[in-house]
Amino acid sequence: MRTQPPRLLAAALVTALAASTFPAVGTALAVDYERVLNGTFENGSADPWWSSAGVTNRVTGGELCASVTGGTTNPWDALVGQNGVPFESGQSYTLSFDAHATTAQTVAAAAGESVSPYRGIARQEFALTPAKQRFTFTFTSTLDFPDAGNGQLAFQLGGQSFANTICVDNVSLIGGVKPPGGITPNPTRKVQVDLVGYVPGLPKRATLVSTATTPQTWTLKNSAGATVATGQTTPKGADATSGDSVHLIDFSSFDTQGTGYTLSVGADSSFPFDISSDAIKKLRYDSLAFFYHQRSGTPIDAQFVGAEYARPAGHVNVAPNQGDNNVPCRTDLACGYTLDVRGGWYDAGDHGKYVVNGGIAAWQLLNSYERASRIGDASAFRDGSMAIPEKSNGVPDLLDEARWEVDFLLKMQAPDGMAHHKIHDAAWTALPTRPELDDQVRRLSATSTAATLNLAAVAAQASRLWRGIDATYSAKLLAAARKAYTAAKANPAKLADPNDNVGGGAYDDKTVSDEFYWAAAELYATTGEAAYRTDVTASPHYKAASLSRAGFFWGGTAPLGDITLALAPNGLPAADIAAIKSAFASVADQHLTAMAAMGYAAPYDNSTDGYVWGSNSAVLNNAQVLALAHDFTGAAKYRDGVFEALHYLLGRNPLSTSYVAGYGDQAVRNVHHRFWAHQNDATLPIAPPGSLSGGPNSALQDPVAQRVLVGCPQQKCWVDDIGAYSVNEVAVNWNSALAWVSGWAAEKSGTPVTKPDCEVRYDANKWQTGLSAHVSLTNTGTTAWNGWKLAFSFPGTQKVTTGWSANWSQTGRDVTATNMPWNGQVEPGKSVYIGFNASGSGSDPAAFTVNGKTCKTG
User: Which of 188, 278, 663, 711 could connect to 656 by a Cys-Cys bridge, CB 3.0–4.6 Å?
Assistant: First the structure.
C-alpha cells in the first residue's frame, strides 16, 4: 500500500540515526500487538509492501524477494516498505525478520514517518549473506502514529555497485500498549438513512442509534430547512449484529418528491437524501457500466466512460503484456495445447478471468433480460440504452454486454469439451497495475466439472435468448452447451484444485450436483428434450429443494435452475412449477420475518457464518429472491423487502456508508482494484459510479482488516481501504447482482408496469416426431372476455395437425386459436382449457398474446 513516496529518511536523518545504537536482540514484550501486515507472504501476494524505483518485488517460495538494480549511491536509493504502520510515542517495539541475499551486502531496517518532513524513529544495519538468518532489534518510538496513521517501516537496500536479489520473510513488528484497530472507517451519524433516496409511494424507514427506552421525536426537513413532517420513533433495543441500540423511524406518510431532505432527532441529523425514483433508474445503468469498465482485450473508450477511466486494451500481446491470444496451461499440467482467450471481463480487482464467477455473472445479466422480456419491461435494455460500443447494432444492449463474457466462456472450452476453470497471471501483480502494463506470464488452470457446467448452463441460456436475434450464433451456443454437458457427465467429479491460488483465487467447489441441475434446467428450457428433462426431475435439487435463506452464489447455483424453470415456458407439470414459485415465496417470508427484527433491515442470514466475504452480494441475491416472490405472487410486502435491501446498501447501515461508489454523500471510494487505485497513486481514479464493494466480513480475512477492525461487530467489519481486499474488493458476480436488483427496482419505480390481463400455461408432452400440448388461458384482468384469440409462434419445426376446444390455424411458424361458440365468455379470474397435437420438434413457444395483449406465462 504505497500511498506516499518511499522517502523515509533524508541523508541528514540517516546520519543522525546511524549515530544511535540498538541492541541486536530485544527483550520479550508483555503485549504482542502485531503492527505489520502480511509479514509471512503466505497468500502469495506482496500487498501492501511497496518498492521504490529500481526495485521489483516478487513473492517466491513464500518469501518477498526484491530484485535491486545496481549502481545506486545511498542505502535509501532502493527501498522496500510498508506504510500505515502504527507507532505510539514512548512505547517499545521489536522488529524481527528472516533475510538473505544472493550476494552478501549490508542493508538497513528503518522506522519513521511516511510523509513530509519524513522524521525518523529508528534505524539498524544488518549484514546479509546467501544463508538465511534471523535478525531482531528493539527500539522506543519517539513519534506517535496511532491507528495506522503515517508510520512507516522500510528496508534500505541501495548503495551497491552490483545488482542483487534480497529476500525477507516472517517480518514482525510487535509492541505498544494500544491494540491497532477498533477504529470506525467513516464518520457515522446517529440517524441512518438511505443516503441516495426513497422512491415515492413506497415505505420510507430509517434507524436512530439511541439508548433511550422511550419514543423520541423525529423531524423531517426539506432542503430549505423547513419542517415538513414529524413523528415518534419506535424503540427496538440492542441490535447484536451492529452493536447499536436502535429505534425505528417510519416516515412513509410523507411522499412529496424533492431533494436535500434531512431527518433529525434532537441535535442529531442524517445525511441529506432525496424522495425520487431518479437515482434508482440511473443506478440501473451505472451498475451495468461496471462491466464495460472491466472488459479485457479491448480499449476502454473515453466517449463511453470519460477521460478519467479510459485506458488501452489489456492483455492483447502488446508489450509489456504477454497476452491472452496464445495461453498455455500451467507448467505442471502439460495439456499440449494453447487457447486464444482474449476478451471477457476481469473478474475482480486483479487481472484474472474465472469461469465460475463469470458464469453466474453472465447468467444474471441474461436472466435480468429474460425476466423483463417475459413478465416485465425489457424496453429499458433496448439497443442504444447503454454507453457501450455496440449500442447501435440492433441488439438489446444488455445482451451485447453479456455476450462479451459469453464469448469468452466459449473460448475457455478445451478440445474435449471440458472448460478450463480460470486464466490469470502466474504470480500476483502489484497494486496498482493497469492491465496494459501487466508483464506477468498468463496461464490456464486445469479444466473442472464446475466450470464446464457453468459453460453449459450459460451457453444454453444464451442460445435461447439469441434464437430470434441471430440463429447462427444461437446454434453455435447450443452446440457448445451440449458438448460441455456431455463432457461434464463423462467427468462428473473433476474438482478445482484448492491450492491453485497463486496469481489468482482458487474458487474450488467440492459439490457440483447443483451445477448439474442448473445446466440441465437451462438445456431443457432451451431444447425441451427428454434426456435433459429426466436429469432435471431426478435431481435432488428439483422444485427448489436447495433454496434457503442462505441464497445462492457462484458455488451454490441450483436456485438459478429453479428461476429459469419458473420463468421460461417448458413442459414440466404445472404443479411442479407452482411448487418452485411457492418455495420462493416461502423463503422470502423467512427473510421478511428476520428483517423485521433487525436494526438495519437486510435479507441476510448471519446465523451460521456471520458476515462473509462478499456479504453485499448475498444481500442482493436474496433481494432477487424477494423480487421474484413479488413477480410470482404480486404481494407488495416482497417488493418492499427488495427496497429495504437497497436502503441498507445505500446508507441505512451502522457505518452511514453507501457501498455503491458515486451514490450518496459518504460512498465507497477506495475499492481493492489494480487500476481504480487513487489511494495508492493520485494519477489513477477512484471506483467509478455503480461499483459495489464486497461489504462487511466478520472473518477479517486480510491484513488491513485484521489490523484496523479488531473486535468489530459483524455489520461494522468493513473499511474503505484499497488494501482491505476481503471487505472492499469488487467482483463481476457482485455487480451482476446489483444490476439485476437495481434493474428490477427501477422497473417498479415511478410509473408501474401494467399487469398483464392474461396468463397462459403451456404444457407439452413430447416424443421424437411430435407432441401433444395442453394450454390454459386465464383472464387476470378486471373485465370479461367476450371472445378471445390466442397467438404464438413455434421456434422449431412443429406443425399443428389436430386441435380441440378452439379453432386452430397455422401460417409458417405463427399459430392462432380462436374461441368456440361455447367458451368465448371468460369472466375475470376464470380459465379456458384448449389443446392440440403437432408433428415436428423444437422448444416451447416463448411468448403468447390473447386479444393482442402479451400474457404472463406460467
Answer: 188
